[in-house]
Structure formats: structure tokens, C-alpha cells
TrEMBL record:
It comes from the Bacteria. InterPro entries: SAM-dependent_MTases_sf, TPMT. The keyword Methyltransferase applies. SUPFAM superfamilies: S-adenosyl-L-methionine-dependent methyltransferases (SSF53335). One of its GO terms (molecular function) is methyltransferase activity. It comes from Hymenobacter ruricola. This is Methyltransferase domain-containing protein. GO terms for biological process: methylation.
Length: 202
């Protein structure tokens, strides 16, 4: 069974939060995701999953807009604690302290949101990430979000970079590519260095 890479387990991630090595934290929903969320139809009440959600500003934003079926999954307790503290009325049953690779697909999701989770996984897990996202989505469901299109060099720990062409190969077996281009309106340090993706499960 696919699972977390041993070196980057729950203790590793909780330790990064505890020691303040959390430079990925944008302290709010990022502009490309906010623009996409603002176009979603709340009346449809899609089932939305945010894996590796961290402090989950996306979940907070969607919840405040009236989306009722937003699920966040993370292996670090701090991630879920922070969301619950900021948003006390967020449904406790939708805070999943769980390994993304072990999440069940019944019921499936309409939308999965990617924000600095893919880059947190050891690169050897990338094919499994694409497979698991496809497994969790219903046919026609959407994976959207941001992927670093950046070479971070030979690093020993996350974030791990990569390129558009490398990523395309992981997702092509399962998805139709609706959008796979350099993001506009990225946060300043990420400008020109990340892709906005919107992929439809075949
Ligand atoms: C780089 S952080 C990004 C957090 C958040 N998406 C953000 O942008 O602020 C990666 C997150 O993924 C979580 N994580 C790592 N491996 C995981 C796994 N296998 N399943 C679920 N969460 C995982 C970590 O605990 C951490 O909160």
C-alpha cells in the first residue's frame, strides 16, 4: 500500500510546525485559488477535498462562502488544530487527521484542491499522488490548484521542485488537461514559478 515517505511522516511535519519552519504558510487563501473559488457555484454544494491542507485557509474561505462539504486532510495535528481554532463552526467530522494515500474514495469527491502539498511529498510518490487523486475523484471531477514549476536544486527535504513536462506525464493517464499554464496573480515570491492547473478526471 502507498503511504507517507518514512522520512517525512507525521512527526516530521508536526516538528516543522512546532519549530516554525513553515515558510509555505501564506496566511490566507492565495489569489489564483480565490479567483477560482469565487467562480464556483455554491448551490451545487460539491464535495471538496483539500489534502495536505496545513492551516487550511482555502477551507476557511470556502466554508465562509457557504460550501458545506469541505474536507481537509493532514497528518500533522497542528494543521487541523489551527483551522478548528480559527473557525470553530467548521464541521469537526470534516477534519481528517489522515494520510492522503489511505483516504477512501466512497463517497468520491467532486473537487480536489492542490496548494503546496504535491511539493511536500517525496518525488518518488508523485505517480502515486496522481493515481490517488484520480481514485478519490468521481468521473468528471476536478483537480485544481498550483504546482511549483521551479527547480529548487538537489534539496534533501521539502519543498521539492519540478517542471511542467515532468508533471504532465504523471497526470496524463487519468486526466484531461483544461488548464496547465503559468499562474497569473501568484503571490510575489511565487510569481512566474508556479503552474495553475485544472484537470478533469476521464
Ligand atoms: C508544505 S505543507 C502545505 C500546507 C498547506 N497546503 C499550505 O499551503 O499552507 C504540506 C502539508 O502536507 C501535510 N502532509 C504531508 N504528507 C502528508 C500525507 N501523506 N497525508 C496528508 N497530509 C500530509 C503536512 O503535514 C503539511 O501540513
Amino acid at each position: 500500500m502507498e503511504t507517507v515517505f518514512p522520512a517525512f511522516d507525521a512527526a516530521y511535519w508536526q516538528g516543522r510546525y512546532d519549530s516554525g519552519r513553515d515558510g509555505w504558510d501564506a496566511h490566507g487563501v492565495t489569489p489564483p485559488l480565490r479567483t477560482y473559488f469565487d467562480q464556483l457555484d455554491v448551490a451545487r454544494q460539491p464535495r471538496i477535498l483539500i489534502p495536505g491542507a496545513g492551516r487550511a485557509y482555502e477551507a476557511e474561505y470556502l466554508h465562509r462562502r457557504g460550501f458545506q462539504h469541505v474536507f481537509v486532510a493532514d497528518i500533522a495535528p497542528e494543521a487541523l488544530r489551527a483551522l478548528a481554532a480559527r473557525v470553530p463552526d467548521f464541521p469537526a467530522g470534516q477534519l481528517l487527521l489522515a494520510d492522503f494515500f489511505a483516504l477512501p474514495n466512497d463517497p468520491s469527491y467532486d473537487l480536489i484542491v492542490e496548494q503546496t502539498f504535491f511539493c511536500a511529498l517525496h518525488p518518488s510518490l508523485r505517480p502515486a499522488y496522481a493515481r490517488q487523486v484520480a481514485h478519490l475523484l468521481r468521473p468528471g471531477g476536478t483537480l485544481m490548484g498550483l504546482l511549483f514549476d521551479t527547480d529548487f536544486g538537489p534539496v534533501q527535504e521539502p519543498p521539492f521542485g519540478g517542471s511542467k513536462e515532468e508533471y504532465r506525464a504523471y497526470f496524463a493517464p487519468y486526466f484531461d488537461f483544461r488548464h496547465f499554464e503559468t499562474a497569473t496573480h501568484s503571490l510575489k515570491p511565487r510569481q512566474g514559478r508556479e503552474l495553475f492547473i485544472c484537470l478533469k478526471k476521464q
